[in-house]
Amino acid sequence: MSPKILVADDEKGIRAALGQLLEYDGYEVHSVQNAVDAIAEYEKWHPDLVFMDVKMGGIDGLEALKRIRVIDPAAIVVMISGHGTIQTAVEATQLGAYDFLEKPLDTDRIQVTLRNALQHVVLREENSRLRQSIESRYEIVGKSFAIRSLIEKIERVATTPARVLITGENGTGKELVARAVHRLSPRAAKPFVEVNCAAIPSELIESELFGHIKGSFTGAIADRTGKFEQANGGTLFLDEIGDMSPSAQAKVLRVLEDGVVNRIGSSKTISVDVRVIAATNKNLEAEIAEGNFREDLYYRLNVVPVVVPPLRDRREDIPLLVHHFAGILSEGEGMPPRTFSQDAVDRLAAFGWPGNVRELKNTVERILILSSGPRIGATDVDRLLGLRAADTTSLGSLADSKTFEQFKEAAERAFLLHKLRETDWNVSETARLLDMPRSNLYKKIERYALAREHA
């Protein structure tokens, strides 16, 4: 579709000449002879760009510019004038004009202005699409009572400066909650900085959070800004806070109390204004009792507790999640569009999903990749998840064991398989959760012939 351009000028010759030039270059042009008509035409037609004279009978072009910007704050308006002055150009710019051209109009200048302005429109649309795509990836999907209650709590706490502690099982969507709180807060235009405390070695976590200066330790070859400074004015999301080292916990507590950070190796204090949101899948009260987590830090973080429900407690949301993931994967990952039959969705809703929403998303992606045809049916789900169904060990099957040794082995196998699925088969993370050497876990995986589910 050709770009739409509105020309507003009380001189018939200008309207005709400019319209002819623009139409010759392939643009769709509407022309009006006064500011009132320009405002009405903009509201009705929504052009991509406006050329508008400053001096016209009745309402002048600057007043029309002001009113058009009220209708559409993103409107691109180029002002033209036969009596241009610096003062008029400055006033037009302050009112939001994209450019200011003097009469007689120069053809080359018009074309350059057009090209730059329309490139600006394209970039703005691409940014809008990208923002919508990103937001859809972090959308909280569901209509169950549990999710509606969660969203209501997010909306209430987001507008306040209160710190939030998000708890829930692996894969439930704790990061989505943190991002939603930030997006709905007064800090939305500022940075959202995420730190996974479990993924960073304890000897590096303090440098990651607070930064360091050159030469403060081996490997510190340059000054580095910490996450607290990067998040200044915005939100810092401390994921898996329960895995943070004791010394880092003490320093985080100081930042929360005093609002200042010290880079490692520096005595200079740096003031920061950061809203901290923390998340964990651990029971922090139990960690406090065992001496693994500071009680004073817990109470600083746990101003507003938010619990994210596991997927098994909101099964009615599974159909919505399946269609949501199918949509964003088809659109964003370049997969062919597919639909899930009701039988297929019912099959997926029947699983226990120990890995919660993350596991469901990975499963939907696997089905989209490995299935054929435009519509996915129950047989596709059964075929692609057959190993999953066969590997599910129930209490009844455990009770069928003939000896106590067989029972122990079957129980251990089922337990390990459950934990591996819960971490999406991240062996290192599973070993950490089980407090088991990784080499031992690999041996047990081999012993019990455990395998990730594939078609």
Distance between the termini: 44 Å
Q: What's the Cα radius of gyration?
A: 30 Å
Helix content: 40-55%
Count of runs of 4 or more consecutive helical residues:
21
Calculate the mean pLDDT score and round it. 87
Which band does the percent of strand residues land in? 5-15%
Q: CATH superfamily of the largest domain, called what? A: P-loop containing nucleotide triphosphate hydrolases
Total domains, how many? Answer: 4
Strand line-up in the sheet with most strands: 2-1-3-4-5
CATH T-level topology of the largest domain = Rossmann fold
**Structural class, please?**
alpha/beta
Q: What is the makeup of the main sheet?
A: 5 strands, parallel
Give the oligomer, counting copies of the same chain as homo and different chains as hetero: single chain
How many β-strand runs? 16
What does this structure look like?
This protein has four domains: 4-134, Response regulator (Rossmann fold); 145-309, Rossmann fold (3-Layer(aba) Sandwich), CATH 3.40.50; 312-384, Helicase, Ruva Protein, domain 3, CATH 1.10.8.60; 395-447, Arc Repressor Mutant, subunit A (Orthogonal Bundle), CATH 1.10.10. The protein has 21 helices and 16 strands. The protein has a five-stranded parallel beta sheet, sandwiched between helices. The longest helix has 31 residues, at 107-137. The model is unreliable at 387-396 (pLDDT under 50). By secondary structure, the chain is α/β, with parallel strands linked by helices. Helix 4 (86-94) links the parallel strand 4 and strand 5 (99-102). The protein is extended. Helix 6 crosses helix 7 and helix 14 packs parallel to helix 16.
